[in-house]
Write a structure and sequence with these properties.
Shape: elongated
Radius of gyration: 35 Å
Oligomer: single chain
Number of domains: 3
Order of helices and strands: HHHHEEEEEEEHEEEH
Structural class: alpha+beta
Distance between the termini: 140 Å
Strand content: 15-25%
Helix content: 40-55%
Length: 275
């Protein structure tokens, strides 16, 4: 019984001794880390306000603010470790070895990060622009360090790993797109009247942009008809519905003005002895 009591007293004495020796240092280290968090948040907010004055994408601003916060927290953490008497050189060496192993195991993730930073700083596209790449297309919704998210025209979401974007051929439509409509008319049609009718249809459609000016003209002299090219501009959001509306309006306008849209036909002549 006495031995058990002595063991408890020894443990208590050890705990008290450790608390006296390292308690103040641990308390100061915690205070330093908390101060680092507070200072990091304050500096991050101030930096975010300052970066709004520059023409930077939101992902770039967020990345810079986050990097500054991490840097400040890292500096305060080093101060806390030094206060505890931790040897930093062996710790840094251990972190370096562990980092090399992690880098080998996460090559795909790191390649996405590098590609994401490349996209963020080179800015081949911006949020809200319509792009086509790697066989997919859509409006850019978010740009992150790991992935880029597109809103497709069918209301679905397309998530592209950033490494699939860098180095590929990218088609950036921006915020407007051009329709390509072909309209066939008979060879005896007054082309000026047909083009004027199409121009009226385009002017009456609110989805068609006034600038840039729509392109119109004779495109192909086909076998059964003259194909007219109609290429109006619309916003990205109006691209889908505008095509159907314009085609329907052209057909109705041509019918009301007796402009013939011919169907494919061939003329066959029989040659032989008339007798």
């Amino acid at each position: 019984m006495n031995e058990h009591v002595e063991s408890i007293n020894q443990v208590k004495a050890t705990v008290v001794d450790l608390a006296i020796r390292f308690g103040p240092k641990v308390f100061v280290a915690i205070v330093i880390v908390v101060a680092g968090v507070i200072v990091g948040r304050w500096v991050g907010k101030a930096m975010a306000r300052g970066l709004r004055k520059f023409d930077l994408e939101p992902p770039v601003r967020d990345l810079l603010v986050r990097a500054v916060k991490i840097l400040i927290l890292g500096m305060f953490s080093i101060m806390a470790l030094q206060n505890l008497g931790v040897e930093l050189l062996p710790l840094i060496a251990g972190i370096g070895v562990a980092g090399a192993g992690i880098a080998l195991a996460m090559q795909g993730v790191l390649s996405n990060v590098v590609a994401g930073l490349t996209i963020i700083f080179t800015r081949p596209f911006r949020i809200g622009e319509y792009i086509a790449i790697s066989g997919v297309e859509g409006t850019v919704e978010t740009m992150g360090v790991f992935k880029t998210t597109l809103n497709h025209a069918d209301m679905s979401t397309v998530v592209i790993p950033n490494r699939k974007i860098v180095g590929e051929i990218l088609h950036n439509y921006g915020s407007i797109r051009q329709l390509d409509i072909a309209v066939g008319v008979a060879y005896d049609t007054d082309l000026n009247a047909a083009l004027a009718t199409i121009e009226e249809v385009l002017r009456s459609n609110p989805r068609v942009l006034k600038e840039p000016v729509p392109g119109m003209g004779v495109n192909v002299l086909a076998d059964s008809s003259i194909l007219l090219a109609v290429r109006p501009w619309t916003s990205v959001g109006d691209f889908g519905p505008a095509g159907g509306e314009i085609k329907k309006a052209i057909v109705e306008a041509f019918r009301s003005r007796k402009i013939v849209i011919p169907f494919p036909q061939q003329e066959v002549r029989m040659l032989g002895n008339t007798a």
